[in-house]
Amino acid sequence: xxxxxxxxxxxxxSATADFHHALEALAVVTRKEPGCISYxxxxxxxxxxxxxxxxxxxxxxxxxxxxxxxxxxxxxKKMDTWKIKDPEVHFLSAEPDALx
Length: 100
What we know:
Layout: E1 3-11, H1 16-30, E2 36-43, E3 50-57, H2 60-67, H3 70-82, E4 83-92
Antiparallel strand pairs: 1-3, 1-4, 2-3
Helix pairs in contact: 1-3
Pfam family, one: ABM
GO molecular function: monooxygenase activity
Protein name: Antibiotic biosynthesis monooxygenase
């Protein structure tokens, strides 16, 4: 059953250029993952430093594969220096206990 991740990220305005570059690189490799259907992101036009990620995976295995990638771990580590607060992350699926 398909899985979605919706994340709202809050980035220091001084770090948005570095964040943008790293996020685009992450999107390129994530879209090549076998379980990824789509991986898109948008800058919020009325909120400087706020970005929305929308991730779509074929199934639980595809999402779990994404979470195991070293490039994702590297990106998350960099996020600690860029963020002004923790992201708001929502996992969506019609399947109960989809991520357990």
